[in-house]
Sequence to fold (445 residues):
Amino acid sequence: MGRKGKPVSQLRVLVVDDEPGIRSMCRQVLESLGCAVEEAGDLEGAENALGGGQFGLVILDVRLPDGSGLDLFRETRQKDPDLPFAIITGYASVEDAIDAVKNGALDYITKPFDVRRLEEVVELASWRMPAGLAVGEGATFEFHGLVGASPGMRSVCSLIERAAQCPSTVLIQGESGTGKELAAKAIHQAGPRSKEPFVPVDCSSIPAGLLESELFGHVKGAFTGAATAAAGLFRSAGRGTVFLDEIGELPRQLQAKFLRALQEREVRPVGATRAAPLEARVIVATNRDLRSAMADGEFRRDLFYRLHVIPIYLPPLRLRRQDIIPLAQHFLDQLNAASGRKAKLSRETASLLEKRDWPGNARELKNAIERALALTGGERIDERAFSEPESKPDPLREGDRLEDYERQAIQAALLKADGNRERAAKILNIGVATLFRKLKKYNLK
Fold:
């Protein structure tokens, strides 16, 4: 596309909306970008169009005269899981559109939408076009540390492969444990910066008062205790990659400074009068819904759109069950190599693993494999090694206070995380700093 240097003249787009004005506006924008456009005003017309040819993008309204566009999305995804969909929605149907994104839609656009949003969706769809990953249907593959077999994971790796070749900011979204840092490393390793540093930063684990200095650096004497100058992580990465995990936890007062750094490609250390160049590529990740955070005033709208250049969504493991056994085998191979063992999963065990939902995703699966290997003396891991019940907080009883339940939930998370507070915070879906405050509040160790 001209704005980013990525041509999309080969992208064939189907626009499905019952409002002629919206279809006309989309056609004008899409054709100006070099796309071939077809239109449909209802579900019947959309089904006929989809049955008559291949498309690189479907822009689909939620509400159509003869039914819900989301029904068409779900039916089409079963037949062609790699076809990108962008969902058009009004304010009342935003939650449905978010669910569609979580289940594989490329993105959603709220009415009224501007030209820039449409351009972003088209550009993203152009990146999703096949990139030559030679992976057969159902075959297990590994791509720079990412392992899978499902069409959804194959699509993610195709997008990562393309994103690696450009310097644009990438926003990785997904539940805790889906492998967001692995995806960021894959982007770094697959691109021209692979020999440069990869610097990961967990925004939720650094106290807010220290985060600015950690990221941007400081000059000597900038604050009490600053006996020497520090370059900061942005500059320490050089021409490599800075990965900011849990970007949704970035304090509001730092969001403006971060936005300026991205726009101006320069960072100003704390206490400095001059800025220094920012040469590193920036990749961010979150398990939060940043659009909801924007609506709540917790996240800047301008920063969100600056980060949302190439969004990548990592589906939860329960929506890509084809990846469970390849991942389990991958983790077991790693553990066998480290311990010198030759343990194997029984057929019954593999079936059991594939049926579980794994709310902690790949991280929970890896921990389960490690625990099962430790509990198994022989070389065959059977299903009994995975039958240990999980610790859960006691249910609320009449007269219980909210604080009592919160205390129990924190204790259960710490138990499940073997006392690791960072892992416990992820289980609770809160920041580490928030967990520290609650530990102090309830006098927990």
